Known about the structure:
Oligomer: homodimer
Largest interface: A-B, 38 and 38 residues
Strand content of chain A: 15-25%
Structural class of chain A: alpha/beta
Distance between the termini of chain A: 33 Å
CATH topology of the largest domain in chain A: Rossmann fold
Helix content of chain A: 25-40%
CATH class of the largest domain in chain A: Alpha Beta
Amino acid sequence: MPDDWSDPPPRQPLLVVISGPSGVGKDTVLQRMKERRMPFHFVVTATTRPPRPGEVNGRDYFFISNDEFAEMIEHHELLEWARVYNDYKGIPKQQVRDALASGKDVIMRLDVQGAATVRALSPDAVLIFLAPGSEEELVHRLRERKTETPEGLKLRIATARRELDRMKEFDYCVVNRDMSLEATVDQIIAIIEAEHSRVNPRRVTL
Amino acid sequence: MPDDWSDPPPRQPLLVVISGPSGVGKDTVLQRMKERRMPFHFVVTATTRPPRPGEVNGRDYFFISNDEFAEMIEHHELLEWARVYNDYKGIPKQQVRDALASGKDVIMRLDVQGAATVRALSPDAVLIFLAPGSEEELVHRLRERKTETPEGLKLRIATARRELDRMKEFDYCVVNRDMSLEATVDQIIAIIEAEHSRVNPRRVTL
C-alpha cells in the first residue's frame, strides 16, 4: 500500500468541447459561462475575417491575415480549422497547450465536424453536445437570424438535422431549452466537476 | 435519421453506491443528502439488531428477526448482506427494483466490500468512494467514536487503510474534508447530474 494513500489524486486539466448544431445557442452558453467567472481558459479562435464593430483582437478573435493563416496550417499549428464562407477560422494549438500546462481546464466551442476532429487528435477530450429542446425551437432560432434568405434557411435546417444525428459521437448531451440558459450552464459545470472526480482521470494529449 | 431526433433520451434511473473507509463520514453525507430533499430513493437497510432509542422501523432500518433474515438470504432476496459483530445487515433487492421501476435514482451506503459485491451484480452501478482529506482526519474521526478500546481502534485504522487501497475499483472519488460537508454533497449531486447527461446512459439491471 502506498505511503501517500491519503493524498487526493492531482487535478488533471480537461479539454472540453462544447458543440451542437447551428442555432442551438453555443455562443450564448459560452458567453454565460464567461460571465460566471469560472477558472476556465476559453479558447480564442484565429480568423481571417475583418473585425466587426466592437470586436477586440485577442478577446473575441485573433484577427490574422490569409498569409499568416496559411503558415499556421503549413506548420501544423492549428488544432482544428475550417473555411466558413470566404473566411478561415482555426484554433491555435499552442494556446491550448499553454493553458493546459498552467493547470486550467480549456473550453472551446466547435461545430460538430470540428468536435470530431478534436476527438481524433485528442481522444481524452470531453465532448459535450448541446441539443435543442425540440425541432421547433431550433428552426425558430435559425429563422430569427434575419440574415438568411429562404434558401439559406432551408440549407441551415438541413445541415442542423444532419449534425443532430452525430450526437452519438459525443460523451454528454445537454438539452439547451429556450429560457433555461442557467440550467444548461449548471449542467455543463456539473459534468466538468464530475469528470474531475473520476478515479481514472482523462489525460489530455495534444 | 429518426423522426424523433429532437427528443432528449429518456432519463434512466441510476443505482448510486456511496462507500469509503470506516470513519470517513458516510452516514453524515447521506443524512445531509436526505435533508436536501432531492428526489432520490434512499435505501433502507434490513437488520437483525434491535432498534436503538428513537429509531423508527422502515425509516432508519427494517428491523427483522434472524429467521426472516435467513429466509431472505435463502431466497436470494438480498442485494448484499454482511455480518456486523453479532448482527446481520442487508439490502432488500425488491426495494431497489421498485424504486428503479418508479424512475427514481437509488442511493445506498455500503462498506467497501459491499460496494464490490454490488459492482459484480450490477456493473452499471455508479460507485462513489468517499476519501478523507488526510490520514490524520480519518484517525481523528475514528478516535472520536469513544466506543472503541485502544485495540479496537488499532484494528479500525488497519481496516480503513486496507479499504482506502480499494479506491481504484470505484468510478469516482470525492474527498470529504472536515468542515466541507456541503461541498461533498454538491460534488456527489454533480456526479449524478453528469451521469444523467451521458450520451450512452448506464442501464441498471438487478
